[in-house]
Design goal:
The chain is α+β, with helices and mostly antiparallel strands. 18% of the residues lie in helices and 28% in strands. Helix 10 packs antiparallel against helix 11.
Length: 829
């Protein structure tokens, strides 16, 4: 009977390599595991579990991830002897696996179910107790092949206290050293205080906290007072000091005394993060006093509480853990004695005790931060906020008339944005005002009055004066009612530092524990921010095209006009043209806006535009071809909203040069699940040896585009895409479905393979979508997927914010990619 190590022995010449030959060993009462970092022709991580006297092994190209949403490809390879677990060294050139091997992690593992049955079924669940990896994990086989071929599996972290989001922590990058050679780790730890030197960025976005209902259990958290004020970031570059709000507004001129005080600190090359407040007679922050200071332009009493330093003394500290950043910041503040700029003290005590104390003092609440967390410019579960009372921002959409002796107005009508971006009524607030604030607010409201109701639906029984949704009110209240209204509200003040376009209903997330991220609250995603419209008269021509009826509203949600849409296409025409030129085209026209009837047009007869011509169809219906940037703008002037393209070009119209997998989520599918499904689909394509590229659809889902050398016909390409999708649905039936139609996919994702047939088209890159919000289909790098907020994150108003920051085309390798389906088809199960 052949030994389980026969394949291992055959691949190695033990007279040349120093790897141990080994034998099948006796069973041990405690099962060991090892992960070896293997720098062969390509760096990968060998994941090995002891079972029945050998090490069952997988090669994991990217190494393990602590994020439950990240599936790592793991290729099942030959068993290794137990003695291999301690091997470190160099496998000589010419030998199998030539390169360096290090023991990256080691420890014991505990099967959660019968491991032999799990290996047979292709689903192995277990717990790791290593020096780096802990908690529950799972290996899942995704392809059943002939025995002589290597099997692809997925290595998945389960969602427990040891899990960490990938955007926040990459264990492979953060802990690269060998566990056998501790000196490398010691050098790294010692060197962490010396963060890399970096050029001070001109702009910077702060980290935001996640609302939770209660403090997390366990240690590892640092708590601070939640100041009742405005978030402010200070940029210090020599004598140049600038103060910015969290939205990037420059408020230096509004706080000249504070800017001067920051300049005297003696700190250089820094971005400081903190909160400004005005203290009352008891030393407590008062939001009303802060409001009064700005209203009266008397800001000398504003105090800046600094709690973090993403950049300090010319170094980038963002990758350091919070405890180290604060230590460096405290050292800098140790030389400072300023009544206006203070280091925000932290407390490593029980969060419940501190919250109770803060509430008794009449404070707004507390902030908790995980001590080991890096700094990330996004909302993160490693920073949490706990409030003494329910309190949040609302958009003011109207007001009622005063009654009796009251002056100004009776109450303010409040709203928040829902998932679609529409404003929904949240109730009104009529208390918390004095005579001065009533008069000041009434003046602001009068300037914003409009006949158009800004709400998605008129609230019953409410008589109001509507205003444009430009003001943000901070309101405390008792609770939310079942129909989405707030109970017992009290007005706290206006928030001129908050953008009304991003105000949604706050919902508390589950509190996190050290090593475990907070579960994201199921609040509506932030609607896309509209670009400010110019007060100047709009030009009458764009790209030589005269724009008629530019003032006509085409989207009620974003308030987009026809001119806004035409201007968008004018701005992106040159970038968009390569995605349209030489490719059969179909157009979606909406003469009455997106709420009206849409026309899907493939013929020229009613759309005569220079630069657009009709292709001879042969045995297929004729289609359009677009050849100039001016034609894109001219089509938008003719009420075209969407541009769709075929999978082949006019050079080889019967042979597709791409295959598209359109991930279309059904009802009830969370965005995190869409991201997960996209990652799994990409891994499947990687397994088949196919390079793929990612873009948003601009609607609900994502598009994975696989470029091809135009060799196969449409039937072959369509059948290949169908086979891939069927396999995904069979392997992960809780995630994927292979049948189209909404009734077939509640809670699941349909990967649309039908788009790869003859005559089918897909929304092109940079095309707007004829849906509320006018989202845009945008090419992305795969590294951006984990941070993506939605498929319509970018729209015709905010896409410029992305393109202005891009350093390189995320699809720069697309045109040079050469591949066919021949080899990939053979690998299909």
């Amino acid at each position: 009977m052949a030994s389980r190590l026969s394949t291992y022995w055959k691949k190695r010449d033990f007279g040349v390599t120093s790897e141990p030959r080994g034998e099948v060993a006796a069973r041990h009462p405690r099962l060991s595991f090892v992960i070896q970092k293997h720098a062969a022709s390509r760096l990968h991580y060998d994941f090995r579990l002891e079972l029945d006297g050998t090490l069952v092994s997988w090669a994991v190209p990217k190494g393990p991830s602590l994020d439950p949403h990240v599936r790592r490809m793991a290729v099942h390879v030959e068993d290794h002897p137990l003695s291999y677990a301690g091997f470190e060294g160099v496998i000589p050139k010419g030998q199998y696996g030539a390169g360096t091997v290090e023991v990256w992690d080691r420890g014991t593992w505990t099967p959660i179910e019968d491991p032999r049955e799990g290996l047979r079924r292709g689903r192995l669940k277990f717990e790791l107790d290593g020096e780096k990896l802990h908690g529950n994990w799972m290996l899942v086989r995704i392809d059943k092949r002939r025995e002589e071929r290597q099997e692809p599996w997925l290595l998945i972290k389960e969602n427990d206290e040891a899990a960490r989001p990938a955007a926040e922590y990459d264990v492979v990058q953060e802990m690269p050293e060998s566990v056998k050679n501790k000196t490398s780790g010691a050098r790294r730890e010692k060197g962490q205080a010396k963060a890399p030197r970096a050029k001070l960025p001109l702009s910077f976005s702060p980290q935001l906290a996640t609302l939770v209902d209660s403090p997390p259990a366990g240690k590892g958290w640092i708590y601070e007072v939640k100041f009742d004020g405005y978030r402010v970031l200070a940029r210090i570059d020599g004598d140049d000091v600038r103060l910015f709000t969290r939205n990037g507004n420059n408020w230096t001129s509004r706080m000249k005394p504070l800017a001067a005080e920051v300049a005297r600190l003696g700190i250089d090359g820094a971005w400081l993060d903190g909160e400004i407040a005005v203290l009352d007679q008891h030393g407590n922050p008062s939001f009303q006093l802060l409001q009064n200071a700005f209203d009266a332009a008397k800001t000398r009493d504003i105090v800046y509480f600094v709690f973090d330093a993403p950049f300090l003394e010319g170094r980038d500290l963002r990758r350091l853990p919070l405890v180290q950043r604060r230590a460096l910041l405290a050292t800098a503040f140790g030389k400072i004695d300023s009544p206006l700029v203070r280091f925000s003290e932290g407390f490593e005590i029980d969060g419940r005790e501190l919250l109770e104390s803060a509430c008794k003092r009449g404070l707004e609440g507390i902030i908790g931060k995980r001590a080991d967390a890096i700094y990330t410019s996004s909302r993160s579960p490693t920073w949490i906020k706990l409030k003494c009372t329910k309190r949040q921002e609302f958009v003011i959409v109207g007001y009622t008339d005063p009654k009796g002796s009251r002056t100004g107005f009776g109450s303010l009508l409040l709203a928040v944005h829902e998932r679609s971006g529409a404003l929904v009524y949240a109730g009104n607030v009529g208390t918390g005002f004095d005579e001065a604030s009533l008069a000041a607010l009434k003046s602001k409201l009068a300037a914003l009055e409009t006949d158009r109701m800004p709400l998605a639906e008129r609230p019953k029984g409410v008589k109001a004066h509507w205003v444009r949704p430009k003001l943000v009110a901070e309101v405390s209240f008792g609770e939310w009612t079942g129909d989405g209204r707030i109970r017992h509200p009290v007005f706290q003040g206006l928030r001129s530092d908050k953008d009304p376009d991003v105000i949604t209903r706050e919902k508390a997330a589950e509190p996190a524990s050290p090593g475990k991220p907070a579960r994201k609250a199921k609040s509506a995603p932030r609607p896309a921010k509209s670009a400010p419209r110019s007060a100047k008269p709009a030009p009458s021509t764009l790209h030589g095209v005269k724009v008629s009826h530019g003032e006509r509203l085409i989207d009620a949600q974003s308030k987009a006009t026809k001119l806004d849409l035409v201007s968008y296409y004018d701005a992106v025409a040159a970038t968009m043209l390569p995605h349209l030129a030489h490719r059969p085209l179909a157009l979606v026209r909406a003469p009455s806006g997106i709420a009206g009837q849409h026309f899907f047009q493939k013929h020229v007869e009613t759309l005569r535009i220079e630069g657009i011509r009709q292709l001879g169809g042969g045995d297929q219906p004729p289609m359009l071809e677009l050849s100039t940037a001016a034609a894109i703008v001219a089509a938008a002037q003719m009420n075209v909203i969407e541009f769709h393209t075929s999978n082949s070009t006019t050079r080889a119209i019967a042979k597709p040069d791409r295959v598209i997998f359109d991930l279309d989520p059904g009802e009830g599918v969370a965005w995190d699940t869409v991201v997960e499904a996209t990652q799994v689909t990409r891994q499947m394509l990687d397994l088949l040896g196919l390079e793929s590229f990612l873009k948003t659809s601009g609607g609900k889902g994502l598009h994975i585009v696989v470029p091809l050398t135009p060799k196969d016909d449409y039937d072959t390409v369509k059948e290949f895409s169908r086979a891939v999708v069927v396999h995904l649905a069979k392997t992960l039936p809780k995630l994927f479905v292979a049948k189209s139609g909404g009734a077939n996919r509640p809670g699941k994702i349909f990967v649309d393979w039908i788009r790869n047939g003859r005559g089918a088209t897909t929304a092109a890159a940079f095309s707007a979508r004829a849906r509320a919000g006018l989202g845009v289909s945008v090419p992305l790098a795969w590294s951006e997927l984990a941070k993506l907020e939605s498929a319509s994150q970018w729209n015709i108003f905010n896409l410029h914010q992305r393109t202005s920051k891009l350093r390189a085309d995320p699809w720069k390798e697309y045109a040079a990619t050469r591949q066919t389906l021949a080899k990939a088809a053979k690998k299909l199960p």
